Every structure is written in structure tokens, then in C-alpha cells.
TrEMBL record:
<keyword id="KW-1003">Cell membrane</keyword>
<protein>
    <submittedName>
        <fullName>Sugar ABC transporter ATP-binding protein</fullName>
    </submittedName>
</protein>
<dbReference type="GO" id="GO:0005886">
    <property type="term" value="C:plasma membrane"/>
</dbReference>
<keyword id="KW-0472">Membrane</keyword>
<dbReference type="GO" id="GO:0005524">
    <property type="term" value="F:ATP binding"/>
</dbReference>
<feature type="transmembrane region" description="Helical">
    <location>
        <begin position="125"/>
        <end position="145"/>
    </location>
</feature>
<dbReference type="InterPro" id="IPR035906">
    <property type="entry name" value="MetI-like_sf"/>
</dbReference>
<dbReference type="Pfam" id="PF00528">
    <property type="entry name" value="BPD_transp_1"/>
</dbReference>
<keyword id="KW-0067">ATP-binding</keyword>
<feature type="transmembrane region" description="Helical">
    <location>
        <begin position="198"/>
        <end position="223"/>
    </location>
</feature>
<feature type="transmembrane region" description="Helical">
    <location>
        <begin position="157"/>
        <end position="177"/>
    </location>
</feature>
<keyword id="KW-0547">Nucleotide-binding</keyword>
<comment type="similarity">
    <text>Belongs to the binding-protein-dependent transport system permease family.</text>
</comment>
<feature type="transmembrane region" description="Helical">
    <location>
        <begin position="253"/>
        <end position="278"/>
    </location>
</feature>
<feature type="transmembrane region" description="Helical">
    <location>
        <begin position="84"/>
        <end position="113"/>
    </location>
</feature>
<dbReference type="InterPro" id="IPR000515">
    <property type="entry name" value="MetI-like"/>
</dbReference>
<feature type="domain" description="ABC transmembrane type-1">
    <location>
        <begin position="88"/>
        <end position="278"/>
    </location>
</feature>
Amino acid sequence: MTETTSVTSIAGRHALRRRRDRIRRWSWGVPLWILALVFLLPFAWMISTSLKPDVQAFAIPMQWVPRDPHWGNYTEVLFGENSILIPFGNSVCVAALRVLGELTTATLAGYAFAKLRFPGRGAVFVGYLATSLIPAQLLLVPRFVYFQKLSLYDTLWALILPGMFTVLGTFLMRQYFVSQPEEFAEAARLDGASEIQIFSRIYLPNAMPMISALAILTFVWSWNDYETPLVFLSTPENFTLPMGLTSFTDENGAMAAGLSMAASVISIVPILLVFLIFQRRFVAAMTESALK
């Protein structure tokens, strides 16, 4: 009788705990779902507007699901007079080279600041970090003059080269390499491995989650950059996608809502794809950084 009562009591406690856990999940889950829906509303409006003629874009009351979807907006955006295909290709080229350059310089510099011993390492790193205190807008004019003298003005290289070196990228990789055990390098040196081999075969593979996170951040920064192309590009053939989105206007010079939203929908597809591809490593890097 006592054993039966004990088993019943344990089962009751487990059921109560499960009920409390369920209530706790719902108490957190429902507000988060509501918040997520609120953040998704602008994207839903963008997709809905991209399938409407301009005269219906701002109609009241709003029609979230168009009765007669106007797919011509996408055809016009892709193959019309102001096609975004060339700006789209320019953005892909700039983003890809910036990501490649950023990952190369950030991993090498981060490893050097974290694992190599050289005179003035701390002072150099602090000085490098201090450059991030300078507002980026203050550097636009000096860079403009500098690129003009180098004949790089109005070329994609004026966007690519500065984006290959960032303080944040070096800082993130340095912090990651600092957290890695020094015993790995010591054991490899005893086996006769060079510093390049230690970096490329031991530490670099372990840093793939952080490298993926940095790649996503760099790609998004490059893809959404509007200010830099506005200053350094003047030829429409060299425009990147953010500048190409500004070319859709109606006969009065106002924004053509349907065309602009269709182009905007297309512009967010690469960001979604990059995030979906690297999502697991990005989450792993953020989780590992939080735990450390």
C-alpha cells in the first residue's frame, strides 16, 4: 500500500511539473509569436504591394491578398527599362569579394593578435580598436579624394577594398582564438608543425562557426550598404542594388510602389538564402560566445 502511494505521489509530481513546464512555455511562446507577427507585418505588406498596380497600393481599407495578382511588376523589374539585373550582379560581386577579403584578413589578424607573441602586440591592438571610434561619415571625403587619385572612383573597387578590413571582424576572430586552448599549439609545435600549419589545420577548422557568423554579418552589411555607393559611384552601370531600387518612379517622379516593392522582395532573397545556409553555424557561434 505504501509503495502504491509512493508511486502515485511521484507520478503526480511529474504530472504537475510537466503542467508547469507547459504553462511556462506557453507564457513565453505566445508573446514571442505575437511579437514575431508584428515584425513580419511590413514584409507581408511589401509582398502584397508588389502584386498590385500603383493605384491600389495605398487603397483604404487595405487588401492584404490581391484578388488579381499583378505579376507584371516582377517582369518589369527584371527585364524592363530599369532592370535590376545589372545592379543585382554588381551587389553579388561586391558582397562576395568583401566577404572573402574580410574573412581572410580577420582570421589572420585575429590569430596573430591572439596567439602570436611580438613586441607591442597589446598597444597595436588597442590602437586598432580605437580607430572604430572615428565615425564612418568623417572618412568619406578623405576616401573620396584618395580613390580619385588612384583612379578607383566610380569603380566597384571603391566599395570592395574598404570592406575587406574591419575592426569588428578582427575583434570577433581575436576573441574567438583567445578562447581556444594553447595546448593545441604547443602539442603541434612539439610535432614540428609550423605556425601556418597550426593556424590552418588546428585553429581555423574549429573557428568555422564564428567564421560563418562573420560571413553572414559582412554579407548583410555589404548588401544593404547605400551610403558608400551613393558617394563613390556615378555611372548607372556600376550601381549596386540599393541604388537600383531608387530608380522606380512614376510619371510624376514619385515612387512607383508596386515596382519598388517587387524589387525589394527580390533583393531580400539572397540574404534569406545566405542565412538559411549558414543558420546552424551562426546559432552555434552565438551560443558558444554567450557561454564563454
